[in-house]
């Protein structure tokens, strides 16, 4: 035999796999029939659609949009905008998502009503001898809005925006400065340059980590249990498990559901990445392969290989 | 008085922090004139060129293009900087070609050329496509219309870049060492396109190390060193009979 070590490893893995399958089939705690009966119940499917799929889409849309804005602020010439952007990313990256969601779920304690208007209006009024001056444009009762889905969405989206801002910033900075200069020299405005020249190229750098963020977001919707958001996949599975005292089968069901959903996203990610590598066709790919090859050979890290 | 000149620069100063790069540059370029700028590395040639389309703000002095003050508005003897939009409008009629081409790598050659007329001038797509195709044909790239920059040679990329600038119908073209990043055998094809442009009556300011080009095509030659224009005049005169030591020293190295 040419590779005795390889064959030994295969043999060990085969035994381990057989043991695992044996456990899956023979251990009663799995309750497979019960799991299959329960994992497709209407509230669970509704939770999956609304709390997991729709929530992921909304949180990512909001998070990416806000992330782009913060990244642009971070790269602006204005020191105040830069500082605000830095503070934002610092805060939302420093607080764990789970904690953030618990906080957002309980914001109602801070204000029973949320109102928009002149800050300190009553105090200012008192300064000028006016009692109970109220300059408020509009308001709403926070319990109507800032609970459940909205609180969860806000928590996830604001936190996502901080991570997306860093990703977008790295993407923008990866675009060679000469491109923006050429666009400017052609008379394009700053906005046009960003939209037409810089961002499309930054996409190549932005898309892969954004795909990963989307997958992470889909998984993190399970954290909505702590807001709580009841119309959500994990909340519903957990509820069935607790109600029936069959918690373990429902957690296995959760694993299977998330495996399925993330696998779908992985396929989407593949096609998106292919689309955005336009213009970096055979040559760039060949160059990347070469670089990978050199690395495999233990060759020093090749240069970044300027395009052109 | 500056009306009959295409470009007129007066006492242009530019500093980067404590480093004064331009120390009072004057220039006059008539319509249709090809003005070549030579000089040692770091003498401020690129910086001066970038001041002409306000890619760099100047610290003192004035620049007019086609009789219009660039980047500033004069009111009561004082200069006020223009808003970004107004500067962008001025840049539309000034084409620029860079040493490193700076094509948009995610667009095909044709899309590169069409981009600015479509987005900036908001012309009709059919008309722009026709003009862009004709321009690419003129620079000898009719067959490369659908190629991305990464699929073109350096010389071909630079010719696309020239076509891209021409698509805005500029009245002035600025070239910053357009052939310096090219392999020697590709220099000729780019210079040929530039000669063709010059013959067509385009006003051009060309920063270059190609002394042969300056002699053959240039109407005037400017030698810059240390942030000032040391010597200028007809190319044959400056090259054949330099009056300043610094010019002589520089020429002895490049000729
Ligand atoms: N953005 C900048 N910030 C700081 N210094 C700069 C900047 N751009 C140019 N300089 C400096 O200004 C001086 C003149 O640069 P410039 O590029 O105009 O020279 P050049 O004559 O074009 O040289 P070359 O022939 O090498 O292109 C150099 O010392 C350079 O380091
Ligand atoms: Mg230069």
TrEMBL record, chain A:
Pfam families associated with the record: BPD_transp_1
Superkingdom of origin organism: Bacteria
Membrane protein topology class: Multi-pass membrane protein
Transmembrane parts of this sequence: 7-25, 48-73, 85-111, 247-272
Similarity comment text for this entry: Belongs to the binding-protein-dependent transport system permease family.
Record's subcellular location: Cell membrane; Membrane
Gene3D superfamilies: MetI-like
Domain ABC transmembrane type-1: 49-269
Keyword tags: Amino-acid transport, Membrane, Transmembrane, Transmembrane helix, Transport
SUPFAM superfamilies, alphabetized: MetI-like
InterPro entries: ArtM/GltK/GlnP/TcyL/YhdX-like, MetI-like, MetI-like_sf
Protein name: Amino acid ABC transporter membrane protein, PAAT family
GO biological process: amino acid transport; transmembrane transport
GO CC terms, sorted: plasma membrane
Keyword Zinc-finger: no
Main location as per UniProt: membrane
Automatic annotation (TrEMBL), chain B:
Lipid biosynthesis keyword on record: no
Gene3D superfamilies in alphabetical order: P-loop containing nucleotide triphosphate hydrolases
Keywords: ATP-binding, Nucleotide-binding, Transport
Family from the record: Belongs to the ABC transporter superfamily.
Entry's Gene Ontology molecular function annotations: ATP binding; ATP hydrolysis activity; ATPase-coupled polar amino acid-transporter activity
SUPFAM superfamilies for the chain: P-loop containing nucleoside triphosphate hydrolases
EC nos: 7.4.2.1
A UniProt-annotated Pfam family: ABC_tran
InterPro entries according to UniProt: AAA+_ATPase (IPR003593), ABC_ATPase_HisP-typ (IPR030679), ABC_transporter-like_ATP-bd (IPR003439), ABC_transporter-like_CS (IPR017871), MetN_ABC_transporter-like (IPR050086), P-loop_NTPase (IPR027417)
Catalytic reaction list: a polar amino acid(out) + ATP + H2O = a polar amino acid(in) + ADP + phosphate + H(+)
UniProt protein name: ABC-type polar-amino-acid transporter
UniProt entry tagged with the keyword ATP-binding: yes
Occurrences of domain ABC transporter (ranges): 7-251
